[in-house]
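User: For my dataset I need records formatted as: sequence, then structure tokens, nothing else. Please produce one.
Assistant:
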Amino acid sequence: MFYRLLDFLAAFFGLVLLSPLLIPVCLAVWIQDWHSPFYIAPRVGKGGRIFRMVKLRSMLIHADTTGVDSTALNDSRITPVGHFIRKYKLDEVTQLWNVLIGQMSLVGPRPNVEAETRLYTKEERRLLSVRPGITDFSSIVFADEGEILDGRENPDLAYNQLIRPWKSRLSLFYIDQRSLALNLRLIYLTLVGIISRGRVLEEVAKELRHRGASAELVQIALRTAPLVPHPPPGADEVVTTRGTGSAPHGGVIE
């Protein structure tokens, strides 16, 4: 109940305080093509229950029908206003509404679409044991995933091979370590990351090391070495094609 109260109060005051920024951005999204500034996406929450996640629309109408789930920085589906929205993570701010009504938490694994969670490994299904969140270790470390996927011939496959294995491991580590103190720390680090990415990666790595994470996971958090293909947690082989029993990324289509 205390966690829920903290989420409710933070979401309520966050929406109130950020409304002077959100309102003109919503207007800009609407004016560019005269469609709703919001993207309402079905996502899988705690226990496998479906909920409707609210995001500021950063892409063209019907962008989610193209069959491509992962989004590179130069994706042609992103609108001019959408680039601004994504740069400053404003598309995540409206998810405070989902936090307010209890479908999400401020901190937790990012929610995915149903088709993709059905392909989770047994280990990854633990990601559905808690409420999904706006931020956690993985969201901070891979805040630049659009840049990682930029120029890739197959963004979905690149995501599965390079990013998803570590995002899942970081989120699972969060679940094993979660506490009020860690949640407050991750909220703070998320805000720091907007200002200084280099500093926040060092702080995340320090936090992981302090909590007993593997040296490999700490090194990934620093992001000083190139990412190489790796199996997702609970699997022995690197994903080679989409839909082979390993789920692709589910949180970036909008």
